[in-house]
């Protein structure tokens, strides 16, 4: 068996249980690892003696390395290229934003500097969305819970991470067990991320949505709807054939009834495909009975990988106006970030080499809240 990440909690827990070691020691080990990344398991204090040989022979502080870092020209987006122990690469993107910028109802906004980390859950993705660079890679492998958590560990070296979104490479709900395990680690000691500031984005894996709230209460759900009709969804998201829109909407209604949480709807704006006034009305009618926030995402060109074009600003704004004005649906337009380093939505695909070793990147200070 390959050496596992110490954050692969299921494996670590079962090794401890087999040896009769109390699993309550596990978070204390994690605390030591986070505070002393260059130490060794033998230096973790006060563990039962049987724990040390298990840790030393079967686990590592980190199975992945932050191979390189790329910063956007505007300095608000940082992309980490992370090398896994099997030689594959995934990307994690830090987005920074000052939520005090601008005004709200004529008054200064509250808040402050924010950092959002966009995490990958798989190497590649099998959903094949035609507007997405990751989809063009095909599916390579699932990440373990430890490999998912390690992205947070690497990113935290740059700045304090306030929000986490599972919107990087992969469909998180297709790696459900690791997803749940990773989020439970992130929200427990010593990470203590707020579940309310974690968002999992899915193309609409219905059977996973049905159990999501029970497994991860308070964690936010975002659905990449991208079209108000099944035929258009199938055209741009082939995987939608397995998840009919009507059944997806039923699952969302049940989810909202049980969770009482609003749902984030992601909608990529593709010129001439899904960005017309009629689409805005169809979307409004589809969502009217739910509590949602719609996030309109201007399409990021992915070179020769796709034939789509970006909707004009005028069309995006008009789409937003219809949802707001006719259906009273809170609708935001996602700010474009990190396009120059392919760190924007739908652009995550591993490109080697990238410039700049991690050591030369320096610490970052400002930050962003992606969601609204
Ligand atoms: S948009 Fe998400 S689900 Fe679709 S191919 Fe890309 S990574 Fe996979």
TrEMBL record:
Molecular-function GO terms, alphabetical: 4 iron, 4 sulfur cluster binding; metal ion binding; RNA methyltransferase activity
A GO biological process held by the record: tRNA methylation
Keyword Cytoplasm: yes
Keyword rRNA processing listed: yes
Domain of life, source organism: Eukaryota
GO CC term (a single one): cytoplasm
Listed cofactors: [4Fe-4S] cluster
Radical SAM core domain location: 111-340
UniProt xrefs under Pfam families: Radical_SAM
Main subcellular location: cytoplasm
PANTHER family (UniProt xref): 23S RRNA METHYLTRANSFERASE (PTHR30544), RADICAL SAM SUPERFAMILY PROTEIN (PTHR30544:SF8)
Name recorded for this polypeptide: Ribosomal RNA large subunit methyltransferase RlmN/Cfr
Protein source organism: Macleaya cordata
């Amino acid at each position: 068996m390959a050496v596992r990440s110490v954050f692969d909690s299921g494996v670590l827990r079962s090794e401890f249980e087999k040896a009769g070691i109390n699993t309550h020691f596990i978070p204390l080990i994690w605390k030591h690892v986070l505070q002393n990344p260059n130490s060794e398991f033998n230096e973790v204090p006060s563990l039962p003696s049987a724990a040390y040989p298990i840790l030393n022979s079967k686990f590592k502080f980190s199975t992945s390395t932050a191979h390189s870092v790329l910063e956007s020209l505007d300095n608000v987006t940082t992309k980490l290229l992370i090398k896994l122990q099997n030689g594959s690469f995934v990307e994690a993107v830090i987005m920074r934003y000052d939520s005090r910028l601008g005004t709200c109802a004529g008054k200064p906004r509250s808040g402050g500097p924010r950092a959002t980390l966009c995490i990958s859950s798989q190497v590649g993705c099998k959903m094949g969305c035609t507007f997405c660079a990751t989809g063009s890679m095909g599916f390579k492998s699932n990440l373990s819970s430890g490999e998912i958590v390690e992205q947070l560990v690497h990113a935290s070296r740059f700045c304090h991470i306030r929000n986490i979104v599972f919107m990087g490479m992969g469909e998180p709900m297709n790696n459900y067990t690791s997803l749940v395990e990773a989020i439970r680690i992130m929200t427990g000691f010593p990470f203590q991320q707020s579940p309310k500031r974690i968002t999992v984005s899915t193309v609409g894996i219905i059977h996973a949505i049905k159990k999501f709230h029970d497994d991860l209460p308070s964690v936010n759900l975002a659905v990449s709807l991208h079209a108000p009709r099944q035929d258009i969804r199938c055209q741009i998201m082939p995987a939608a054939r397995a998840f009919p829109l009507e059944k997806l909407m039923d699952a969302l209604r049940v989810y909202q009834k049980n969770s009482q949480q609003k749902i984030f709807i992601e909608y990529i704006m593709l010129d001439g495909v899904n960005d017309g006034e009629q689409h805005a009305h169809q979307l409004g009618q589809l969502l009217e009975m739910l509590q949602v926030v719609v996030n309109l995402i201007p399409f990021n060109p992915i070179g020769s990988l796709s034939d789509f074009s970006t909707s004009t600003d005028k069309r995006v704004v008009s789409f937003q106006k219809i949802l707001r004005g006719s259906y009273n649906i809170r609708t935001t337009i996602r700010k474009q970030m990190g396009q120059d380093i392919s760190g924007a939505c739908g652009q995550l695909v591993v490109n080697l080499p990238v410039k700049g070793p991690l050591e030369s990147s320096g610490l970052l200070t400002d930050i962003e809240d992606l969601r609204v």
